[in-house]
Design brief:
Elements lengths: L9 H4 L25 H14 L3 E4 L4 E3 H18 L7 E5 L4 H12 L3 E5 L5 H11 L3 E5 L3 H7 L8 E5 L3 H6 L17 E6 L9 E5 H16 L6 E4 L6 H13 L3 E3 L6 H11 L3 E4 L1 H8 L12 E4 L6 H11 L4 E2 L1 E2 L6 E3 L19 E5 L12 E6 L12 H4 E2 L2 E10 L5 E6 L3 E4 L2 E4 H9 L4 E11 L3 E10 L7 H14 L8 E4 L13 H16 L1
Helix pairs in contact: 2-3, 3-4, 5-6, 8-9, 11-12
Amino acid sequence: MIASAHLDTFARDNLPPASLQPEYVFELPGLQYPDRLNACVELLDKAVERGSGGKTCVVTPAETLTYAELQERVNRIANVLVNDLGLIPGNRVLLRSANNAMMAACYLAVLKAGGVVVATMPLLRAKEISYVVQNAKIAIALCDARLAEEMEKAKPVAQELKQLVYWGEGVLERLMAQPDYENFAACNTAADDVCLIAFTSGTTGQPKGTMHFHRDLLAICDTYGKHVLRANTEDRFIGSPPLAFTFGTGGLVLFPMRAGASTVLLERAAPDDLLSAIEQHRATVCFTAPTAYRAILSKLEGRDISSLRKCVSAGEALPKATWEAWHQATGIKILDGIGSTEMLHIFIGSPEEEIRPGATGKPVPGYHAKIIDENGNALPPNTPGRLAVRGPTGCRYLADERQRKYVEDGWNVTGDTYLCDKDGYFWYQARSDDMIISAGYNISGPEVELVLLAHPAVAECGVVAAPCPERGQIVKAYVVLRASFTGDAAMTKALQDFVKSEVAPYKYPRAVEYVTSLPKTDTGKLQRFRLRETAASINAKLAS
């Protein structure tokens, strides 16, 4: 292990032991990083040194910053962190904001000062914030003043938090304006110093803190960014994922800066907002989820998004129908991909010329993937099993026993069921815990969801297993209907018949419950574990 620059050793002390970490692979040229490395220096300072200081870097509805202007802002915030708030290398810093230039600058400033970023979703409530603060032992926070209410509510519980500074009402800005704060000497961090603790979004239960190194932030740029996305200096990135979500961190900050490009940061990025911003800012690369692409499709008439040349989808499986409809409407082949907070970003996904519609793709150069059975044995082609992956990044949970489940024999086992065809393409089946076993049949809950979503009456749905004494489990669908449709027995039969007509009849939902909304994370992912809990509790009440 390289000598750490961290004086606060909490993060390193709480890394999983080497025996429980995955095997890291650095065989791809360009991944041999020096021992001393600061990600902010590589992404920002070196761009200015190369003469790109006058080039646009960050665009928002409120302001535009060049690389040099962003560098000065980052330096000023880093000085505040060290000189006014007492940050020492290794301290964790909580960041809370929607996507904007100050959020990006604070993120980079923490890296430059040798701190550890802990960015949180803007919609988190006090209880959730305090959970993060307590688990990561956070003493310093920088927060958008518009989010002060929940932060103030969290303070009595999150007693580790000693320094809380807001921007937007002048407090942080006044500190930044002090003389001689325009320059800052970057902390001489090690390549394997922890610089980010990203908490999982909670699709499978209690959030887990995932720890990433300075080299990891560059590795995803030099694998997926370089070999699959292939951005250039003239690109302008845009998207919907929050910067607190690693999909957003990579797609809206790291990838564009590593390529010397620019990024558009939107505080509101619903499909209507995103469509308008693409049109206004002439964005060329878009990062968002399948649901957004599907929603935008119905709004394209009369709109000009001809500037777009790359579209990336992740977060949920991309339906083949959505891929085909987008391609037909725009001529763009959506780059599907699977990533995880544990792996930092996308590790399976193919460039345009290698895409097979419906498949997630092949492993990103620098990564290896395979399908294994319950005992860790590799499975033959076209056999569903557990997805295992390894590469230059990998799972390092913050003091969490669940590390033992995610990493097996040096491989990251993601919790996804996939099959790999004879040509090496990986095809998503379901989350491993979304597989429903009913009367001996293996049924993918997401597959049934995709069928139901094609019915004109269905706005949203979630499909999970419900306990059944006769069949072990049955398929249960929680359905949000569109306006003007009624959730009655006739509708239930119509939906069941529709599923039977589209997929094998044994996959139809034997139970349908109509709801007004579905439980989701702040990143918009369906929390199927909550639906499973609901289904199990209802069954238990009926049994009693």
